[in-house]
Amino acid sequence: MRDVAIIGVGHTRFGRASKTSLELFAEATLRAVDDAGVSLKDIEALFQGAALTGFEEGQVMSAAFSAAELNLGPIPATRYEGACASASVAIRDAAQWVASGEFELVLAGGVEKALLMGTPLATRTFAMACHAPTEGPAGLTFPGVFAMAARRYAQTYGLPLETLREQMAHVSIKNHRHGALNPLAQFYKKMADLKVEDVINSRMVADPLTLLDCCPFSDGAAALVLCSAELARAYTDEPIYVLGTGQASGTALARMGDLTKPLSRITSARMAFKRARLTPGDIDMVEVHDCFSIAELIALESMGFFAWGEAAEATAAGETEIDGKLPVNMSGGLIGKGHPIGATGASQVYWVVKQMRGDSPKGNQIDPVPEYGMTDTLGGDFGTLCHLILGRAKRSS
Amino acid sequence: MSGRAQEELEKELAMEYQVLTYADYENGLKDGKLLGLHCSSCRKITCNPMPVCQWCGSRMLERTELSGEGVLETFTVIRVASEGFEDDAPFIPCLVRTREGPCVIGRLAYDTEQATQDLIGKQVKLTGAYTYKGDRYSGGERICPIFSVLE
Fold this sequence. Notes:
The structure holds two protein chains of two kinds.
Chain A: E1 4-11, H1 21-36, E2 46-49, H2 53-57, H3 62-69, E3 77-80, H4 86-100, E4 105-113, H5 119-126, H6 132-135, H7 142-156, H8 161-179, H9 196-201, E5 204-207, E6 209-210, E7 219-228, H10 229-235, E8 240-249, H11 263-276, E9 285-287, H12 293-302, H13 311-316, H14 333-337, H15 344-357, E10 372-379, E11 384-391
Helix pairs in contact in A: 1-3, 8-12
Chain B: H1 6-13, H2 22-30, E1 34-39, E2 45-46, E3 61-66, E4 69-75, E5 77-78, E6 93-98, E7 103-109, E8 123-132, E9 142-149
Parallel strand pairs in B: 7-9
Antiparallel strand pairs in B: 1-2, 1-3, 4-6, 4-8, 6-7, 8-9
Protein backbone atom coordinates (compact mmCIF):
# COMPACT_ATOMS: atom_id res chain seq x y z
CA MET A 1 0.00 0.00 0.00
CA ARG A 2 1.24 3.49 -0.88
CA ASP A 3 1.71 6.39 1.52
CA VAL A 4 -1.10 8.94 1.44
CA ALA A 5 -0.98 12.67 2.13
CA ILE A 6 -3.38 15.52 2.82
CA ILE A 7 -2.55 18.55 0.69
CA GLY A 8 -5.58 20.77 1.15
CA VAL A 9 -8.16 21.46 3.84
CA GLY A 10 -11.38 23.49 3.90
CA HIS A 11 -13.88 24.31 6.64
CA THR A 12 -17.03 26.43 6.85
CA ARG A 13 -18.03 28.35 9.95
CA PHE A 14 -19.85 26.07 12.37
CA GLY A 15 -23.14 27.22 13.89
CA ARG A 16 -26.35 28.14 12.15
CA ALA A 17 -26.11 28.19 8.36
CA SER A 18 -28.58 29.62 5.90
CA LYS A 19 -26.93 27.81 2.99
CA THR A 20 -28.13 24.35 1.93
CA SER A 21 -26.02 21.33 2.79
CA LEU A 22 -24.97 21.06 -0.86
CA GLU A 23 -23.78 24.66 -0.74
CA LEU A 24 -22.01 24.14 2.58
CA PHE A 25 -20.16 21.10 1.30
CA ALA A 26 -19.28 22.92 -1.92
CA GLU A 27 -17.86 25.83 0.10
CA ALA A 28 -15.68 23.49 2.18
CA THR A 29 -14.57 21.69 -0.98
CA LEU A 30 -13.64 24.89 -2.82
CA ARG A 31 -11.65 26.09 0.19
CA ALA A 32 -9.82 22.73 0.29
CA VAL A 33 -9.16 22.74 -3.45
CA ASP A 34 -7.83 26.31 -3.32
CA ASP A 35 -5.69 25.45 -0.31
CA ALA A 36 -4.23 22.46 -2.17
CA GLY A 37 -3.72 24.38 -5.41
CA VAL A 38 -5.44 21.65 -7.41
CA SER A 39 -8.21 21.92 -9.95
CA LEU A 40 -11.71 20.52 -9.44
CA LYS A 41 -11.03 18.46 -12.58
CA ASP A 42 -8.25 16.62 -10.73
CA ILE A 43 -10.70 15.02 -8.26
CA GLU A 44 -11.20 11.36 -9.15
CA ALA A 45 -13.65 10.35 -6.43
CA LEU A 46 -15.66 11.86 -3.59
CA PHE A 47 -16.14 10.36 -0.10
CA GLN A 48 -18.72 12.22 1.97
CA GLY A 49 -19.84 11.79 5.56
CA ALA A 50 -23.46 12.85 6.03
CA ALA A 51 -25.60 11.29 8.72
CA LEU A 52 -29.08 12.80 8.74
CA THR A 53 -29.51 14.82 5.55
CA GLY A 54 -32.80 13.07 4.78
CA PHE A 55 -34.33 14.46 7.98
CA GLU A 56 -32.71 17.88 7.63
CA GLU A 57 -33.50 18.82 4.04
CA GLY A 58 -35.23 15.78 2.62
CA GLN A 59 -32.03 14.99 0.75
CA VAL A 60 -30.49 11.54 0.58
CA MET A 61 -27.79 10.55 -1.93
CA SER A 62 -26.11 13.82 -1.04
CA ALA A 63 -22.68 12.66 -2.22
CA ALA A 64 -23.74 12.32 -5.85
CA PHE A 65 -25.44 15.72 -5.79
CA SER A 66 -22.40 17.24 -4.08
CA ALA A 67 -20.23 16.04 -6.95
CA ALA A 68 -22.77 17.39 -9.41
CA GLU A 69 -22.96 20.73 -7.56
CA LEU A 70 -19.29 21.29 -8.41
CA ASN A 71 -19.55 19.82 -11.88
CA LEU A 72 -17.01 17.15 -11.00
CA GLY A 73 -18.33 14.92 -13.77
CA PRO A 74 -19.53 11.33 -13.43
CA ILE A 75 -16.95 10.35 -10.79
CA PRO A 76 -17.79 7.81 -8.07
CA ALA A 77 -19.32 9.72 -5.13
CA THR A 78 -20.33 7.84 -2.00
CA ARG A 79 -22.12 8.91 1.16
CA TYR A 80 -20.85 7.36 4.38
CA GLU A 81 -23.07 7.02 7.43
CA GLY A 82 -21.49 6.13 10.74
CA ALA A 83 -23.56 8.59 12.78
CA CYS A 84 -21.20 11.17 14.32
CA ALA A 85 -18.14 9.35 12.90
CA SER A 86 -19.40 9.55 9.30
CA ALA A 87 -16.67 11.85 7.99
CA SER A 88 -13.82 9.96 9.65
CA VAL A 89 -14.99 6.71 8.12
CA ALA A 90 -15.24 8.47 4.74
CA ILE A 91 -11.71 9.87 5.11
CA ARG A 92 -10.36 6.49 6.16
CA ASP A 93 -11.87 4.81 3.11
CA ALA A 94 -10.62 7.63 0.87
CA ALA A 95 -7.10 7.07 2.20
CA GLN A 96 -7.41 3.32 1.66
CA TRP A 97 -8.51 3.77 -1.95
CA VAL A 98 -5.61 6.12 -2.67
CA ALA A 99 -3.20 3.78 -0.86
CA SER A 100 -4.42 0.90 -3.00
CA GLY A 101 -3.46 2.75 -6.17
CA GLU A 102 -7.02 2.94 -7.51
CA PHE A 103 -7.09 6.75 -7.32
CA GLU A 104 -4.36 9.43 -7.29
CA LEU A 105 -6.31 12.37 -5.90
CA VAL A 106 -9.65 12.39 -4.10
CA LEU A 107 -11.88 14.57 -1.98
CA ALA A 108 -13.17 13.49 1.44
CA GLY A 109 -15.16 15.34 4.05
CA GLY A 110 -18.58 15.73 5.52
CA VAL A 111 -21.58 17.95 6.03
CA GLU A 112 -24.53 18.29 8.38
CA LYS A 113 -27.33 20.71 9.18
CA ALA A 114 -28.38 19.41 12.57
CA LEU A 115 -29.18 22.80 14.09
CA LEU A 116 -31.78 23.30 11.39
CA MET A 117 -33.89 20.49 12.84
CA GLY A 118 -34.44 22.11 16.23
CA THR A 119 -33.77 20.37 19.55
CA PRO A 120 -36.71 17.89 19.74
CA LEU A 121 -36.27 16.44 16.22
CA ALA A 122 -32.48 16.65 16.39
CA THR A 123 -32.50 14.75 19.70
CA ARG A 124 -34.87 12.19 18.16
CA THR A 125 -32.79 11.67 15.04
CA PHE A 126 -29.50 11.54 16.94
CA ALA A 127 -31.08 8.91 19.20
CA MET A 128 -31.63 6.82 16.07
CA ALA A 129 -27.95 5.91 16.36
CA CYS A 130 -28.85 4.08 19.57
CA HIS A 131 -29.98 0.44 19.29
CA ALA A 132 -33.59 1.11 18.28
CA PRO A 133 -35.28 -2.10 19.51
CA THR A 134 -33.94 -1.92 23.08
CA GLU A 135 -32.79 1.63 23.71
CA GLY A 136 -35.61 3.24 21.71
CA PRO A 137 -38.53 2.46 24.03
CA ALA A 138 -36.41 3.24 27.11
CA GLY A 139 -36.31 6.81 25.79
CA LEU A 140 -32.53 6.94 25.86
CA THR A 141 -30.91 10.02 24.39
CA PHE A 142 -27.20 10.56 23.73
CA PRO A 143 -26.77 12.73 26.81
CA GLY A 144 -28.59 9.93 28.62
CA VAL A 145 -26.14 7.27 27.44
CA PHE A 146 -23.12 9.33 28.48
CA ALA A 147 -24.77 10.26 31.77
CA MET A 148 -25.05 6.52 32.44
CA ALA A 149 -21.37 6.15 31.53
CA ALA A 150 -20.45 9.03 33.88
CA ARG A 151 -22.24 7.34 36.77
CA ARG A 152 -20.41 4.09 36.01
CA TYR A 153 -17.11 6.00 35.89
CA ALA A 154 -17.72 7.49 39.35
CA GLN A 155 -18.82 4.11 40.71
CA THR A 156 -15.88 2.17 39.21
CA TYR A 157 -13.21 4.55 40.50
CA GLY A 158 -14.83 5.28 43.84
CA LEU A 159 -15.30 8.98 43.08
CA PRO A 160 -18.09 10.95 44.72
CA LEU A 161 -20.33 12.00 41.83
CA GLU A 162 -19.89 15.66 42.80
CA THR A 163 -16.11 15.32 42.48
CA LEU A 164 -16.44 13.79 39.02
CA ARG A 165 -18.85 16.57 38.00
CA GLU A 166 -16.24 19.16 38.97
CA GLN A 167 -13.51 17.31 37.07
CA MET A 168 -15.76 16.91 34.01
CA ALA A 169 -16.49 20.65 34.14
CA HIS A 170 -12.81 21.27 33.37
CA VAL A 171 -13.27 19.57 29.98
CA SER A 172 -16.02 22.04 29.12
CA ILE A 173 -14.08 25.03 30.51
CA LYS A 174 -10.97 24.12 28.49
CA ASN A 175 -12.81 23.39 25.26
CA HIS A 176 -14.92 26.54 25.48
CA ARG A 177 -11.78 28.56 26.23
CA HIS A 178 -10.22 27.39 22.97
CA GLY A 179 -13.47 27.43 21.00
CA ALA A 180 -13.85 31.09 21.92
CA LEU A 181 -10.51 31.78 20.18
CA ASN A 182 -11.46 29.92 17.00
CA PRO A 183 -13.16 32.13 14.36
CA LEU A 184 -14.78 29.07 12.74
CA ALA A 185 -16.27 27.85 16.02
CA GLN A 186 -19.95 28.00 16.91
CA PHE A 187 -19.06 29.68 20.22
CA TYR A 188 -16.36 32.03 18.88
CA LYS A 189 -15.82 34.86 21.37
CA LYS A 190 -18.35 33.26 23.72
CA MET A 191 -17.95 31.50 27.07
CA ALA A 192 -14.18 32.04 27.08
CA ASP A 193 -13.95 32.11 30.83
CA LEU A 194 -16.38 29.59 32.31
CA LYS A 195 -16.16 28.57 35.95
CA VAL A 196 -16.81 25.13 37.42
CA GLU A 197 -20.02 26.46 38.98
CA ASP A 198 -21.24 27.70 35.58
CA VAL A 199 -21.03 24.18 34.17
CA ILE A 200 -22.46 22.42 37.21
CA ASN A 201 -25.32 24.89 37.62
CA SER A 202 -26.39 25.07 33.99
CA ARG A 203 -29.61 23.31 32.97
CA MET A 204 -29.69 19.60 33.79
CA VAL A 205 -30.11 17.57 30.59
CA ALA A 206 -29.52 13.97 31.70
CA ASP A 207 -28.37 13.68 35.30
CA PRO A 208 -25.43 14.27 35.97
CA LEU A 209 -24.76 15.98 32.59
CA THR A 210 -25.78 19.61 32.25
CA LEU A 211 -26.16 21.66 29.10
CA LEU A 212 -22.54 22.85 29.37
CA ASP A 213 -21.34 19.24 29.60
CA CYS A 214 -22.83 18.75 26.12
CA CYS A 215 -21.78 19.81 22.64
CA PRO A 216 -24.33 21.81 20.65
CA PHE A 217 -26.31 20.93 17.55
CA SER A 218 -24.58 22.53 14.57
CA ASP A 219 -24.59 23.16 10.85
CA GLY A 220 -21.34 23.04 8.91
CA ALA A 221 -19.01 21.24 6.52
CA ALA A 222 -15.34 20.38 6.18
CA ALA A 223 -13.38 18.81 3.35
CA LEU A 224 -9.89 17.51 2.57
CA VAL A 225 -7.89 16.83 -0.58
CA LEU A 226 -5.98 13.56 -0.28
CA CYS A 227 -3.48 12.17 -2.77
CA SER A 228 -0.60 9.75 -3.05
CA ALA A 229 2.56 10.83 -1.25
CA GLU A 230 4.45 10.94 -4.56
CA LEU A 231 1.94 13.30 -6.12
CA ALA A 232 1.75 15.46 -2.98
CA ARG A 233 5.27 16.79 -3.50
CA ALA A 234 4.16 18.31 -6.80
CA TYR A 235 1.74 20.56 -4.92
CA THR A 236 3.36 21.32 -1.59
CA ASP A 237 6.64 21.12 0.31
CA GLU A 238 4.76 20.31 3.50
CA PRO A 239 2.15 17.62 2.96
CA ILE A 240 0.65 16.05 6.06
CA TYR A 241 0.83 12.28 5.89
CA VAL A 242 -1.87 9.81 6.93
CA LEU A 243 0.29 7.46 8.97
CA GLY A 244 -2.28 5.05 10.31
CA THR A 245 -6.01 4.55 10.54
CA GLY A 246 -8.29 2.40 12.65
CA GLN A 247 -11.98 1.62 12.66
CA ALA A 248 -14.09 -0.62 14.85
CA SER A 249 -17.73 -1.36 15.63
CA GLY A 250 -19.58 -1.66 18.88
CA THR A 251 -22.89 -3.21 19.87
CA ALA A 252 -26.10 -2.45 21.72
CA LEU A 253 -25.41 -0.67 24.99
CA ALA A 254 -26.67 -3.64 27.01
CA ARG A 255 -24.05 -5.91 25.43
CA MET A 256 -21.11 -3.53 25.78
CA GLY A 257 -19.87 -4.82 29.09
CA ASP A 258 -18.11 -1.84 30.66
CA LEU A 259 -19.42 1.54 29.47
CA THR A 260 -16.21 3.23 30.61
CA LYS A 261 -13.93 0.91 28.59
CA PRO A 262 -15.53 0.69 25.15
CA LEU A 263 -13.97 -2.18 23.21
CA SER A 264 -14.72 -0.46 19.89
CA ARG A 265 -12.67 2.58 20.87
CA ILE A 266 -9.78 0.56 22.29
CA THR A 267 -9.66 -1.68 19.20
CA SER A 268 -9.84 1.17 16.69
CA ALA A 269 -7.15 3.23 18.45
CA ARG A 270 -4.81 0.26 18.72
CA MET A 271 -5.29 -0.51 15.03
CA ALA A 272 -4.30 3.05 14.13
CA PHE A 273 -1.21 2.97 16.37
CA LYS A 274 -0.16 -0.38 14.90
CA ARG A 275 -0.53 0.83 11.31
CA ALA A 276 1.38 4.05 12.12
CA ARG A 277 4.05 2.12 14.04
CA LEU A 278 3.65 4.63 16.87
CA THR A 279 2.59 4.53 20.51
CA PRO A 280 0.52 7.01 22.56
CA GLY A 281 3.77 8.48 23.89
CA ASP A 282 4.73 9.61 20.37
CA ILE A 283 1.58 11.71 19.86
CA ASP A 284 1.93 15.47 20.44
CA MET A 285 -1.72 16.51 20.29
CA VAL A 286 -5.18 15.05 19.76
CA GLU A 287 -8.61 16.12 18.64
CA VAL A 288 -10.99 13.76 20.44
CA HIS A 289 -14.74 13.29 20.27
CA ASP A 290 -15.92 15.32 23.26
CA CYS A 291 -19.61 15.07 22.46
CA PHE A 292 -19.94 15.25 26.25
CA SER A 293 -17.38 16.14 28.89
CA ILE A 294 -17.24 12.54 30.16
CA ALA A 295 -16.68 11.33 26.58
CA GLU A 296 -13.34 13.16 26.38
CA LEU A 297 -12.15 11.41 29.55
CA ILE A 298 -13.23 7.97 28.33
CA ALA A 299 -11.60 8.66 24.95
CA LEU A 300 -8.24 9.62 26.44
CA GLU A 301 -8.15 6.49 28.60
CA SER A 302 -9.33 4.16 25.83
CA MET A 303 -6.69 5.49 23.45
CA GLY A 304 -3.96 4.83 26.03
CA PHE A 305 -3.00 8.41 26.92
CA PHE A 306 -3.98 7.98 30.57
CA ALA A 307 -4.38 4.95 32.81
CA TRP A 308 -7.94 3.84 33.53
CA GLY A 309 -9.60 6.24 35.92
CA GLU A 310 -6.87 8.89 35.72
CA ALA A 311 -8.03 11.19 32.91
CA ALA A 312 -10.58 13.04 35.07
CA GLU A 313 -8.08 14.17 37.69
CA ALA A 314 -5.39 14.83 35.05
CA THR A 315 -7.77 17.08 33.13
CA ALA A 316 -8.67 19.02 36.25
CA ALA A 317 -4.92 19.42 36.87
CA GLY A 318 -4.40 20.96 33.42
CA GLU A 319 -2.53 18.07 31.79
CA THR A 320 -4.65 18.34 28.63
CA GLU A 321 -4.26 22.11 28.30
CA ILE A 322 -2.02 23.76 25.70
CA ASP A 323 1.02 23.65 28.01
CA GLY A 324 0.19 20.24 29.49
CA LYS A 325 1.42 16.72 28.86
CA LEU A 326 -0.99 16.26 25.93
CA PRO A 327 -2.94 19.21 24.48
CA VAL A 328 -6.47 17.98 23.75
CA ASN A 329 -9.02 19.70 21.53
CA MET A 330 -7.16 22.97 21.00
CA SER A 331 -9.72 23.76 18.28
CA GLY A 332 -12.40 23.90 20.96
CA GLY A 333 -13.49 20.32 20.31
CA LEU A 334 -17.11 19.49 19.69
CA ILE A 335 -18.13 21.37 22.85
CA GLY A 336 -16.58 24.69 21.89
CA LYS A 337 -16.35 24.46 18.10
CA GLY A 338 -19.67 22.77 17.39
CA HIS A 339 -20.67 19.34 16.10
CA PRO A 340 -22.24 19.10 12.65
CA ILE A 341 -22.13 15.35 13.00
CA GLY A 342 -21.42 14.31 9.42
CA ALA A 343 -18.61 16.88 9.20
CA THR A 344 -16.94 16.45 12.57
CA GLY A 345 -14.24 13.94 11.61
CA ALA A 346 -13.12 16.15 8.73
CA SER A 347 -13.10 19.17 11.02
CA GLN A 348 -10.88 17.30 13.48
CA VAL A 349 -8.41 16.47 10.68
CA TYR A 350 -8.58 20.08 9.45
CA TRP A 351 -7.47 21.33 12.87
CA VAL A 352 -4.68 18.77 13.23
CA VAL A 353 -3.36 19.85 9.81
CA LYS A 354 -3.62 23.52 10.82
CA GLN A 355 -1.66 22.78 14.01
CA MET A 356 1.08 21.05 12.00
CA ARG A 357 1.33 24.03 9.67
CA GLY A 358 1.45 26.49 12.59
CA ASP A 359 -1.76 28.04 11.27
CA SER A 360 -4.05 27.64 14.30
CA PRO A 361 -5.44 30.78 15.95
CA LYS A 362 -3.25 32.48 18.55
CA GLY A 363 -3.88 30.94 21.95
CA ASN A 364 -4.73 27.60 20.34
CA GLN A 365 -1.51 27.01 18.37
CA ILE A 366 0.85 24.55 20.04
CA ASP A 367 4.50 25.65 20.04
CA PRO A 368 6.59 24.06 18.63
CA VAL A 369 4.28 22.70 15.94
CA PRO A 370 3.33 19.07 16.60
CA GLU A 371 5.04 16.30 14.63
CA TYR A 372 2.35 13.70 15.27
CA GLY A 373 -1.36 14.27 15.84
CA MET A 374 -4.39 12.04 16.14
CA THR A 375 -8.14 12.23 15.76
CA ASP A 376 -10.76 10.18 17.61
CA THR A 377 -14.32 10.11 16.32
CA LEU A 378 -17.25 8.27 17.86
CA GLY A 379 -20.55 7.42 16.21
CA GLY A 380 -23.64 6.49 18.20
CA ASP A 381 -23.23 5.03 21.67
CA PHE A 382 -19.80 3.56 20.84
CA GLY A 383 -21.22 1.89 17.69
CA THR A 384 -18.72 3.27 15.17
CA LEU A 385 -15.23 4.34 16.15
CA CYS A 386 -12.54 5.71 13.87
CA HIS A 387 -9.02 6.96 14.53
CA LEU A 388 -6.61 8.72 12.19
CA ILE A 389 -2.94 9.39 12.95
CA LEU A 390 -1.28 12.17 10.98
CA GLY A 391 2.34 13.25 10.79
CA ARG A 392 4.64 15.82 9.22
CA ALA A 393 7.03 13.08 8.11
CA LYS A 394 6.29 9.84 6.31
CA ARG A 395 5.94 6.63 8.25
CA SER A 396 9.29 5.04 9.09
CA SER A 397 9.77 1.90 7.01
CA MET B 1 -34.32 -27.82 -18.41
CA SER B 2 -31.95 -26.15 -15.96
CA GLY B 3 -33.00 -24.46 -12.72
CA ARG B 4 -34.54 -25.73 -9.48
CA ALA B 5 -38.08 -26.66 -8.57
CA GLN B 6 -40.11 -23.92 -6.89
CA GLU B 7 -41.21 -26.42 -4.20
CA GLU B 8 -37.60 -27.10 -3.31
CA LEU B 9 -36.81 -23.37 -3.10
CA GLU B 10 -39.88 -22.72 -0.96
CA LYS B 11 -38.81 -25.50 1.42
CA GLU B 12 -35.43 -23.79 1.85
CA LEU B 13 -37.10 -20.46 2.57
CA ALA B 14 -39.33 -22.05 5.22
CA MET B 15 -36.29 -22.67 7.42
CA GLU B 16 -36.55 -20.36 10.52
CA TYR B 17 -33.29 -18.91 11.77
CA GLN B 18 -34.64 -16.86 14.66
CA VAL B 19 -35.47 -18.98 17.72
CA LEU B 20 -36.87 -15.98 19.61
CA THR B 21 -37.92 -12.85 17.75
CA TYR B 22 -38.30 -9.34 19.13
CA ALA B 23 -42.05 -9.74 18.81
CA ASP B 24 -41.85 -12.87 20.99
CA TYR B 25 -39.63 -11.00 23.46
CA GLU B 26 -41.99 -8.03 23.63
CA ASN B 27 -45.02 -10.28 24.03
CA GLY B 28 -43.18 -11.95 26.90
CA LEU B 29 -42.67 -8.58 28.59
CA LYS B 30 -46.40 -7.86 28.25
CA ASP B 31 -46.99 -11.13 30.14
CA GLY B 32 -44.51 -10.12 32.83
CA LYS B 33 -41.78 -12.46 31.56
CA LEU B 34 -38.21 -11.72 30.57
CA LEU B 35 -37.52 -14.18 27.77
CA GLY B 36 -34.07 -15.10 26.52
CA LEU B 37 -32.05 -17.87 24.91
CA HIS B 38 -29.98 -20.61 26.45
CA CYS B 39 -26.87 -21.57 24.52
CA SER B 40 -26.15 -25.28 24.57
CA SER B 41 -22.62 -24.60 23.38
CA CYS B 42 -21.33 -22.21 26.10
CA ARG B 43 -24.34 -22.61 28.46
CA LYS B 44 -24.73 -18.84 28.82
CA ILE B 45 -27.90 -16.80 28.42
CA THR B 46 -28.61 -14.32 25.64
CA CYS B 47 -31.08 -11.49 26.25
CA ASN B 48 -32.39 -9.51 24.30
CA PRO B 49 -32.92 -11.99 21.48
CA MET B 50 -30.31 -12.49 18.76
CA PRO B 51 -30.00 -15.10 16.00
CA VAL B 52 -26.73 -16.27 17.62
CA CYS B 53 -25.40 -16.46 21.17
CA GLN B 54 -24.29 -13.01 22.37
CA TRP B 55 -21.30 -14.56 24.14
CA CYS B 56 -19.89 -17.26 21.83
CA GLY B 57 -21.74 -16.76 18.55
CA SER B 58 -23.15 -20.30 18.51
CA ARG B 59 -26.47 -20.97 16.83
CA MET B 60 -27.36 -23.78 19.27
CA LEU B 61 -30.02 -21.77 21.09
CA GLU B 62 -33.18 -22.67 22.99
CA ARG B 63 -35.81 -20.39 24.49
CA THR B 64 -35.67 -19.80 28.20
CA GLU B 65 -37.19 -17.50 30.79
CA LEU B 66 -35.01 -15.33 33.01
CA SER B 67 -35.81 -14.65 36.66
CA GLY B 68 -36.28 -10.94 36.00
CA GLU B 69 -33.98 -10.21 38.93
CA GLY B 70 -30.70 -8.37 38.76
CA VAL B 71 -28.48 -5.54 39.90
CA LEU B 72 -28.71 -1.90 38.84
CA GLU B 73 -25.52 -1.18 36.88
CA THR B 74 -26.25 2.46 36.07
CA PHE B 75 -29.06 4.88 35.23
CA THR B 76 -29.78 8.49 34.38
CA VAL B 77 -32.67 10.87 34.89
CA ILE B 78 -33.66 12.29 31.51
CA ARG B 79 -34.73 15.92 31.88
CA VAL B 80 -34.55 16.93 28.21
CA ALA B 81 -36.38 14.22 26.29
CA SER B 82 -36.35 13.53 22.59
CA GLU B 83 -39.42 14.08 20.43
CA GLY B 84 -42.19 11.71 21.48
CA PHE B 85 -40.98 11.40 25.08
CA GLU B 86 -41.60 14.98 26.28
CA ASP B 87 -44.60 13.97 28.38
CA ASP B 88 -42.59 11.25 30.13
CA ALA B 89 -39.82 13.56 31.40
CA PRO B 90 -38.35 13.29 33.92
CA PHE B 91 -37.87 9.53 33.64
CA ILE B 92 -35.15 6.99 34.38
CA PRO B 93 -33.61 4.72 31.74
CA CYS B 94 -31.48 2.07 33.40
CA LEU B 95 -29.02 -0.72 32.70
CA VAL B 96 -29.59 -3.90 34.69
CA ARG B 97 -27.25 -6.88 34.97
CA THR B 98 -29.58 -9.84 35.25
CA ARG B 99 -28.90 -12.65 37.68
CA GLU B 100 -28.41 -14.92 34.66
CA GLY B 101 -25.63 -12.74 33.21
CA PRO B 102 -26.71 -10.57 30.31
CA CYS B 103 -27.51 -6.88 30.79
CA VAL B 104 -30.75 -5.33 29.61
CA ILE B 105 -31.88 -1.76 29.11
CA GLY B 106 -35.16 -0.73 30.64
CA ARG B 107 -36.83 1.89 32.75
CA LEU B 108 -36.58 2.20 36.50
CA ALA B 109 -39.78 2.89 38.42
CA TYR B 110 -38.43 5.26 41.04
CA ASP B 111 -38.97 8.79 42.31
CA THR B 112 -36.84 10.91 39.97
CA GLU B 113 -36.15 13.45 42.72
CA GLN B 114 -34.75 10.74 44.99
CA ALA B 115 -32.69 8.94 42.34
CA THR B 116 -29.10 9.33 43.54
CA GLN B 117 -25.82 7.56 42.89
CA ASP B 118 -26.30 5.14 45.82
CA LEU B 119 -28.99 3.34 43.78
CA ILE B 120 -26.19 1.74 41.76
CA GLY B 121 -25.62 -1.82 42.92
CA LYS B 122 -29.13 -2.22 44.35
CA GLN B 123 -31.13 -5.36 43.66
CA VAL B 124 -33.93 -4.80 41.17
CA LYS B 125 -36.75 -6.90 39.78
CA LEU B 126 -38.88 -6.85 36.67
CA THR B 127 -42.24 -5.38 37.60
CA GLY B 128 -43.80 -4.41 34.31
CA ALA B 129 -43.49 -3.39 30.71
CA TYR B 130 -43.32 0.10 29.27
CA THR B 131 -45.00 0.56 25.92
CA TYR B 132 -43.70 3.32 23.69
CA LYS B 133 -46.49 4.03 21.26
CA GLY B 134 -43.94 4.77 18.57
CA ASP B 135 -43.65 7.48 15.95
CA ARG B 136 -43.36 7.56 12.20
CA TYR B 137 -39.76 6.34 12.42
CA SER B 138 -40.02 3.58 15.01
CA GLY B 139 -41.66 0.81 13.02
CA GLY B 140 -44.63 0.69 15.32
CA GLU B 141 -44.85 0.41 19.09
CA ARG B 142 -41.90 -0.80 21.13
CA ILE B 143 -41.79 -2.35 24.56
CA CYS B 144 -39.08 -2.39 27.21
CA PRO B 145 -38.93 -3.82 30.75
CA ILE B 146 -39.72 -1.78 33.84
CA PHE B 147 -37.61 -2.60 36.90
CA SER B 148 -38.23 -1.70 40.53
CA VAL B 149 -35.75 -1.50 43.38
CA LEU B 150 -36.09 -4.25 46.02
CA GLU B 151 -35.86 -2.33 49.29
